[in-house]
Specification:
The complex is a heterodimer of chains A (112) and B (115).
Chain A lengths: L4 E3 L2 E4 L5 E6 L6 E7 L6 E7 L2 E5 L6 E5 L5 E5 L8 E8 L7 E2 L3 E5 L1
Parallel strand pairs in A: 2-11
Antiparallel strand pairs in A: 1-3, 3-8, 4-5, 4-9, 5-6, 7-8, 9-10, 9-11
Chain B lengths: L8 E5 L4 E6 L7 E8 L6 E6 L2 E4 L4 E4 L5 E6 L8 E9 L16 E6 L1
Parallel strand pairs in B: 1-9
Antiparallel strand pairs in B: 2-7, 3-4, 3-8, 5-6, 6-7, 8-9
Classes of the chains: A mainly beta (112), B mainly beta (115).
Chain lengths: 112, 115
């Protein structure tokens, strides 16, 4: 176990809805990264938060947004859900600027 | 971040040693090499990380030649439970690669272990 937790485990939404996913980082880690993993693909970087500020973003539209809280936990928000947003969403925590990231179990999002 | 190339799939039998090689021709001076293991519908799990020569831990060894343009993950005496996807990644440990220290995953190597 990495100590990184995510909620919920599974989620079903319909197209056009909004969703919020949550992540608690490993104790002592102040950096949280979010990844999207479609079936059969490797995880794709969405964005990273360091000390409550966005610290890098992948090729995802603005309807993907996030927050990091003072306790370093984080949220991923997705607006106007599309069918292609169906994926496993992974959260990873790390020490600042460390490549060694520890992943949570993920949230399986299904958009109908 | 340096791009990596690894075999799409490998098959093995229980008790054998498995070696998965990853090419990273454009690796930068301050890049480290990290391997993750992933089971279906789970988050990737850190296996091993190294910079040069050889690194060994309780589950695997990582061999890195002097030019660092490739690396080999060695799994001794695999079992059925080692069936998973294995990802090789390279990146700067100090974050100097920029881009928010994102990890760039390829499609990985699907290892299948049979009896």
């Amino acid at each position: 176990e990495t100590g990184v937790t995510q909620s919920p485990t599974h989620l079903i939404k319909t197209r056009g809805q909004q969703v919020t996913l949550r992540c608690s980082s490993q104790s002592g880690h102040n950096t949280v990264s979010w990844y999207q993993q479609a079936l059969g693909q490797g995880p794709q970087f969405i964005f990273q938060y360091y000390r409550e500020e966005e610290n890098g973003r992948g090729n995802f539209p603005p309807r993907f947004s996030g927050l990091q809280f003072p306790n370093y936990s984080s949220e991923l928000n997705v607006n106007a859900l599309e069918l292609d947003d169906s994926a496993l969403y992974l959260c990873a925590s790390s020490l600042a600027k460390g490549v060694l990231q520890f992943f949570g179990p993920g949230t399986r999002l299904t958009v109908l | 971040l340096a791009k990596t190339t690894q075999p799409i799939s490998m098959d093995s039998y229980e008790g054998q040693e498995v070696n998965i090689t990853c090419s990273h021709n454009n690796i930068a001076t301050n890049d480290y090499i990290t391997w993750y293991q992933q089971f279906p519908s789970q988050g990737p799990r850190f296996i091993i990380q190294g910079y040069k020569t050889k690194v060994t831990n309780e589950v695997a060894s990582l061999f890195i030649p002097a030019d660092r343009k490739s690396s080999t993950l060695s799994l001794p005496r695999v079992s059925l439970s080692d069936t998973a996807v294995y990802y090789c990644l390279v990146g700067a440990l100090d974050g100097s690669a920029g881009g928010g220290n994102k990890l760039t995953f390829g499609t990985g190597t699907q290892l299948k272990v049979e009896l």
